[in-house]
Amino acid sequence: MDYNYHTHTDRCGHALGEDEQYVKAAIEAGFKVLGFSDHVPFKEVHHPSERMDYAQMEGYLESINALKAKYADKIEIKVGFELEYFPEYKDYYQSLLKRCDYLICGQHNKTLDAYSYDLYADDEDVIIYANQVKAAMESGLVSFIAHPDYFMLGRNRWSDACAQAARIIAEAAEKNHIPLEINLNGLRYGKKLYGDLEVYPYPFPSFWQEVAKYNVKCIYSFDAHRPTTLLEKERIALVLDQLNGIHLHIEEQFRI
User: Fold this and answer.
1) If DSSP codes are grouped into helix, strand and coil, which group holds residue 82?
2) pLDDT means over runs of 10, the chain (256 residues)
3) For 3-250, which CATH superfamily applies?
4) How buried is residue 46: exposed, middle or buried, by Cβ count under 10 Å (0-12/13-18/19+)?
5) Which is it for the CA torsion 208, 195, 126, 113, positive or negative?
6) Which helix (H) or strand (E) holds 205?
């Protein structure tokens, strides 16, 4: 693994560190590509603990583009955004894509006014989540799906609806040739009890068992919220242990 395309900045309100510190950490870790993908801002919402304000977007783009030039001889840097897919904002997302290198979908909320899947996701919510992620892939806007099993953070059991959601997402990923991210940051929540199973909320084994039935590319991402996270390569071993025996198509040198 010589890349990470899921990197945040302190503008989102729940990450720490200066932009350049992330770059220096990525170089120390031996990455060839570092992609920044902080949460998309919206003019009409103010979520200081979830995403940058709209007024901060220009500074974000300017900062990362300046780092591109400064470190061009050491590492390839890309700038993007992590979006929740709401179809009414498709034109806005398209306008952002003209100004950055890529977009990823990390579906955290059911609606823009912050109905969060990580607080509670019943079976109906899980299917809504899966169809929102499917729509993001069908939009042609996103380069990969971040933490596609995120909904398990707001649950305490795996159900038939969860399995159906995994199939919806995997089928869409296969059809649209969109990679699914094995997120290395779910470890920060510690292990939770799901029935008799005590595991990290994501990557969730049952979800990836369904994905393994499809021809889907998978990538690792650190989902870094502090520079030192990029140095913690042991996270991969912990995740591999949780997904032991599940055969996935891992892209070790993924490029956008």
Assistant:
1) strand
2) 96 97 98 98 91 97 98 98 97 98 97 90 98 98 98 97 98 98 96 95 98 98 98 94 96 92
3) Metal-dependent hydrolases (3.20.20.140)
4) exposed
5) negative
6) helix 205-211
